[in-house]
Specification:
This protein is an alpha+beta fold. Helix content is about 30%, strand content about 25%. Strand 2 and strand 3 form a beta hairpin. The chain starts with a helix and ends with a strand.
């Protein structure tokens, strides 16, 4: 008897993730990453998808490019898209990456001088069931350095919302403080970062592609005016604004 379609799909996706995972570079590859003040970094991208409430198929795929270090919006692209792949936990990238990649490719074709030198992704990178989250997927396929920043803790590989975890969060006294997210294997898959003095709730930073974890954490902190780094915050804002203007009768929901 053949496996159900969902089972076949999961096996196919696991195989693709394993193959692409081998291409992830977990170290700094760009000259600007090695500069203490990120000298040479001028453009930072942010991507996100926002959905109309009650509709998990039609979404606004958003790309913004911000200047660095001023964090002012240089470019924004909002496109309504129809997601065709089903949602299966751990495989979000197969639903979202094609549309985010299209936005980057559209920018490269039309205004290549504005192509970002690094992309912030609203989601995880190596901090994932199989160490290949959305930020890794987009990074490998685009060839761009990517950083995954999640607002909520993915409880995976032995990392849980335990008393110890809550105690570690309480120990983050100021913006820039962080602690490692260590898997049961002993490998550090990311870091919890207190991104702002104003917010005691951390964000979870992990490597996507072509950047080291320490550089990803440092850059994330540099890009935070509030709790969420500005590239992701602006992508979320612009996508929800697009939905509000074009679908005024519907309420939007924020993807966590």
């Amino acid at each position: 008897m053949s496996a159900p379609p969902a089972e076949d799909l999961i096996k196919q996706w696991e195989s693709e993730q394993a193959s692409l995972r081998k291409q992830v570079l977990e170290e700094d590859t760009e000259d600007w990453q090695r500069e203490p003040d990120f000298s040479g970094l001028e453009r930072i991208g942010g991507v996100d998808l926002s959905f109309i409430k009650g509709d998990d198929v039609n979404a606004c795929a958003q790309l913004v490019v911000l200047s660095y270090p001023d964090l002012e919006v240089l470019y924004e692209d909002s496109q309504m898209v129809t997601l065709t792949a089903p949602y299966i936990a751990g495989f979000l990238a197969f639903r979202e990456t094609p549309f985010l990649l299209e936005a980057l490719q559209r920018l490269e074709r039309n205004q290549p001088t504005l192509l970002p030198q690094v992309v912030f992704v609203d989601g995880n990178g190596l901090f994932h069931y199989r160490e290949f989250g959305l930020a890794c997927h987009l990074g490998v396929l685009s060839g761009l350095p990517c950083v995954g920043v999640a607002k909520n803790l993915l409880q995976v590989q032995g990392v849980y919302k335990s008393e110890e975890h809550q105690s570690q969060i309480a120990s983050l006294k100021k913006g820039g403080d962080s602690f490692p997210l260590t898997a049961a294997s002993g490998k550090v898959l990311g870091k919890a970062l207190r991104s702002s003095d104003k917010s005691s709730k951390p964000v979870y930073v992990s490597v996507g592609h072509k950047i080291s974890l320490d550089t990803a954490v440092h850059l994330t902190h540099r890009c935070c005016r509030y709790r969420v780094p500005e590239p992701i915050r602006q992508a979320d804002f612009h996508s929800r604004e697009y939905l509000r203007k074009n679908f005024p009768a519907a309420n939007t929901q924020i993807k966590e």
